[in-house]
Amino acid sequence: MGVRVRQHVNPLSKKFQHAIAPPDWPAIFAQPEQPLYLDIGCARGQFLLEMAQLRPHHNFLGVEIRRPMVKSALKRRDALQLTNLHFLFGNINTSLDSLVGAQAVTGVTIQFPDPWFKRRHQKRRVVQPQLVNELAICLKPEGLLLIQSDVLEVAIDMCDRIAEHPAFTGTTPPHHWLAENPFPAATEREKLTLSEGLPVYRYLFQRRVEPESK
């Protein structure tokens, strides 16, 4: 039987305001010096479980705000004996700056986040200006940031917030969605959406290279 969890968790709740403690990187990764990829809102971790097997020379970290999903993902990781993958429970919006250092991450994915349709709830959406600023700090120059959603409004909102930051540049014109996922794995949500013949709105950003000071 699958893990049953609440579909939506309020990230602004007091219990989610504590920052995630940085892990002991050599303890969670067999080769901690390998390039690190971060998946924000990893759910049950299917995307990262596949990516970790396909790319053994990279490390993968998933952060998820629903604890039962993290426990389930860790069990599946252990069953596969993957030493380049780890999952953490917590709220990324209160933790990113303390979790990883500057230019420590090679790539980031934010896939099918909770849409929070009601206007008064949209402050709960994961892509907020502070998170975008912290992503700009933690991503390496030329590092990639992929966003995906099956809700057009949410995809546009994420794209517009990220595009406002001078550190990011789109790899295609604004709101020109990618026809295919640039990664060789897919989330459960992406697979379900495509199997139903529905669109997925994808956009890829790149971290700008800072000009050298004269």
Verbal overview:
The chain has 214 residues and is α/β, with parallel strands linked by helices. The chain has 7 helices and 7 strands, in the order αβαβαβαβαβαβαβ. It has helices at 25-28, 46-54, 67-80, 96-99, 129-138, 152-163, 188-195, and strands spanning 36-40, 59-64, 85-89, 105-111, 139-149, 168-170, 201-207. The protein has a 7-stranded mixed β-sheet with strand order 3-2-1-4-5-7-6, with helices on both faces. The protein is globular.
Shape: globular
Beta content comes to: 15-25%
Structural class, by secondary structure, is alpha/beta
Q: Percent of residues in helical segments?
A: 25-40%
Report Rg: 17 Å
Q: Find the count of extended strands (DSSP E, 2+ residues).
A: 7
How many H/I helical runs? 7
Q: Write down the oligomeric state.
A: single chain
Low-confidence stretches: 1-6
Q: Main sheet, how many strands, which sense, barrel?
A: 7 strands, mixed
The SSE string, one letter per element, is HEHEHEHEHEHEHE
Mean pLDDT: 88
Q: Distance between termini? A: 61 Å
Main β-sheet, spatial strand arrangement = 3-2-1-4-5-7-6
Features:
7-stranded mixed beta sheet; 29% helix; disordered N terminus; 214 residues; 7 helices; alpha/beta
Summarize the structure.
The chain has about 210 residues and is an alpha/beta fold. It is built from seven helices and seven strands; from the N terminus they run αβαβαβαβαβαβαβ.
Indicate the topology.
Elements: H1 25-28, E1 36-40, H2 46-54, E2 59-64, H3 67-80, E3 85-89, H4 96-99, E4 105-111, H5 129-138, E5 139-149, H6 152-163, E6 168-170, H7 188-195, E7 201-207
Parallel strand pairs: 1-2, 1-4, 2-3, 4-5
Antiparallel strand pairs: 5-7, 6-7
